[in-house]
Every structure is written in structure tokens, then in C-alpha cells.
Amino acid sequence: MRLPLLLTACLVRLASPAAEDGGLGAFVDRQEVAGLVAVAHDRKGAYATVIAGHADRSGQVAMRDDTLFWVASQTKAMTAAAVMMLVDEGRLSLDDPVEKHLPEFKDQRVAGKDGPVARRRSITVRDLLSHVSGLPFKSPEEQPTLDGLPLDQAVKTYARLTLQTQPGEKYQYSNAGINTAARVLEVVSGTPYAEFMQRRLFDPLGMKDATFWPDDRQVARLARTYRPVAKDGPGLTEGSLAQLRQPLGDRKDRHAMPAGGLFATADDVARFCLMLLNRGEHGGRRILSESSVRAMTSRQTPAGMKESYGLGLTVGPDGFGHGGAQATHMEVIPSKGLVLVWMVQHQGFPGQGAKARGVFQQWALKGR
Predict the structure, then answer these.
(1) Which end of the chain has less neighbouring CB within 10 Å, N or C?
(2) Is 309 domain-assigned?
(3) Is the pTM of this model over 0.90?
(4) Domain around 134
(5) Taking a C-beta distance cutoff of 8 angstroms, is the pair 280, 288 a contact?
């Protein structure tokens, strides 16, 4: 007998659609979603976890609460939180010019109609974290994957680029900007980025599976990624993580990517989100100041831009969050005291699969 789902401590595995699951199992049955782990969590500790489908369809490996996912650009929010720790300590200001810490950025120019022109002002750390730096998504050297260069070398390639727009004048989603902010973190803290993240964020929050280099046991728990068999047709086929080098556990030729390199479980991501929901506290320990959480979760993009972005987070009227390249998503809704974590590995969906996350959100918000 299937138990009804409530926002209380429970964990339910779905094998087929039923009224109690909000309809999520139907997406799996129709082969529109390969598998999912979805978590609704409130600040009082009550939660519900919905698990459905397969992490590996061909191997018939079911999704589990400890299934690992590439969360990709959700890493940006965690990188921004780490940078804000240095702001809290007075070691860094959001309005610091980047060249104060990375001199190679001093003489950058900006693309103009008739050739490069002078910058009107320096790029700031705030610009980097809110995607208004003028830097492109990546540099030409970041080929064929995004994780092939050490962070210091990758950032030097950005410094050699002509900016695409004047700093602060246009939103342009930029891995390069977030990566540069992480390099500033390294220089100011004197600590390698991945080590800082582990010691200052992952360990204190109990994000026990969060890693840039999944080991063999974690890879065995990694959800495979899926895409539609055909553009408009039914069914799923396995995809690949072409943006990343293989093997994933290789620490010699793979490098921690601050803009999108993290692997984590649903529980790991929920812990980070709950810290933000609780204004920077977790388990009675302060991770970030309330002012830093406000800065991260308030619009930083200038008025007049249609994009509403904070520091490492998208910001909307009801809350804030971020998605990832494989359709993972996290959302914090302060007015409801709620965190929603949606974990799948998809490069597009057949049929109605793209609507599944919205169905989960509606179910989680029902009655709140």
C-alpha cells in the first residue's frame, strides 16, 4: 500500500502513477523522465522525498536517496557563498576592482563598433558574481571540455580577452565571471578553491557527497543522463557529459570548476539551501552573515535589465534559486519557509517531461 505524501518526515519510492504522488510517477511511466529525486524541506526539519524511476535505465538501477548528480551551474551559488565568507571577514569587498587582486585584468578593453575601446570602469567582484562583467561564457582555450585548465590558467585566458560589453551595462551569463571570482577567493584566502569549499562550506554543512572528483564508489551511484530519442518523438536514450573530461575522478587532468563542476546528492543541495533559508545559519552554527545572504538573494543586476540575478542566484518575487545544465534545480521560498530540490539528469525531455518539475512544485506548495 502506497502511503500518501505529506510535508513530514517521509520517504516514498514511486513505481507507477498514483493520486498520492501528485502525478510524478506518470512522467516516468510514459518515458518522459528517466528518474528523479525530489525533496521538499522546511526550516523546522519536516521533509518529503519523492524517488521515482531509474538512475540507469539499461542496467535497471533504481534512483535512491543517495544517488549522485552533476549539479553543474548550481555550483555558482555555492561559489558565491564562499566568496561572501571573505566579505564577512573584511578581507574582500564586492566593489573591489578585480585587478586589485588579479593584476592581469588591468588593461582589458571592450569590443566596439570600430574596434576595441577603453573600459569606462573596472570589473568588480559584484559584476563577476552577477553576470554583468562583460566577460563571455568561456574562453576559446576551454576546449574540448570546460574542466581541462587549472583555475589560475583559465582565468589568465579570460584576462587576455576583449570584453564583449562595458562592465555593469549588460547581463551576459558567464562561467568565466564566476571562475574569476573563485580565483580572487584563492588569492585573497591563500587557499586552493576546492580545498576552501570543502573546509569552509561542504564539511560544516554536512554535504558529505559534494565533490568535484567523484571516486569509484560515487561514480557507481551517479545517475546517467538522458535525452529524447528524437527531437519531437517519444522515448529516451542515454546521453553523455561531454562538457567534462573522463574519468571523473582524475585529479591530474580534471580541475575543479567553480562555475559548474560540482557533483552532489539531493540531501547535499538541500543542506546548502536550508542554510540560505535560515539566513546563513545551519545546525546552530553561522556559515554566512545575514547581510551576505541578503546580498546573494537580492537583485544585483541594474534596474532596466530584464534579468533579475543576485550573487550566484537567480532572484524572483517569491524566492531565489538556480538550475543546472542537466535540468537539476533548487529553489528557496522564504515566505513559505520552504526549500525545493529537483534532481534529474536530462538533456531535454520528450512529451510533457519538462512539466514534471512544475508538478512537483505545485504539489509541494499545496496547502502552504
Answers:
(1) N
(2) no
(3) yes
(4) 93-188
(5) yes
